[in-house]
Predict the 3D structure of the following.
Amino acid sequence: MISDMDASGDEIELSIVIPCLNEADTIGAVVGKAFAAIKAAGLAAEVIVADNGSTDDSAQIATALGARVVPVQRPGYGEALMGGINAARGTYIIMGDADDSYDFLSIRPFVEKLRAGHDIVMGCRLPSGGGTVMPGAMPPLHQYFGNPFFSALARWWFGVPIHDINCGMRGFSKKLFEQVDPRCTGMEFAVELVLKGSLQGARITETPITLHRDGRKAHVPHLRTFRDGWRTIVDPKNWTVGYVKVATAGKEARDGEEATTAQCGVQGESGGGGAAE
Ligand SMILES: Nc1nc2c(ncn2[C@@H]2O[C@H](COP(=O)(O)OP(=O)(O)OP(=O)(O)O)[C@@H](O)[C@H]2O)c(=O)[nH]1
Ligand SMILES: [Mg+2]
């Protein structure tokens, strides 16, 4: 059995999980910041890089810096995260991209809010929730339309008190993750965790963060605005669409996991937005 202790014999409180697909430009800096934050806060913690089939040196760089690299064969942002989180030994998870756009040095508020009993602590990059987007860090379409729009739907339909539902930096308990049992394999994973969590009664809050311009040189972001947005709320094959239906169908339909599963179950055998990024 894998032990939930770190090398010193302490219980692991926190697992930092970093999904990674060909991020050799930045993974070294990201893992370095994660370990620096762990040391500064005196945490019993581990760093996991969920490597989603990188063909560059990402995995070797992460391993050399002391991260545990978990290979995840099936492609997709959600797949990478689920693979990494399933392998995590911490009571709490904090996830964030490998592109150096999120600052792992600022994880302390996430840990404090998780310790205070919140099940999900969302990072908020947008000023409406106190966050900061550095110049050039987020496409204007995402900053002024996509993220505020999806977040507003989450507030109106699900009563979730957040302003940046797509934020890739967030903390949650491993127990919550296991209860939610996510199915979305692509970028919609980010929305699924929050919406399904809220339907299950999760205590959800947010904390302001700063989004930096990513440090990539080799390639552009993997996310594709219209494809991923479509999959999140419109694609009838997608699980997230089921949660929206549940929330808008009235209170009776919200009364339990049975209803959620029934709504989502009609949407296709694969249970995800399909393979892909
Ligand atoms: N999109 C995508 N990302 C992956 C995949 N596997 C791992 N990742 C990692 O997941 C993270 C998110 O991808 P990004 O390309 O940074 O997405 P983004 O355009 O920055 O999106 P936001 O961070 O939400 O603004 C990165 O660390 C990727 O390396 C995959 O199959 N698809
Ligand atoms: Mg990113």
In short: The chain has one domain: 14-223.
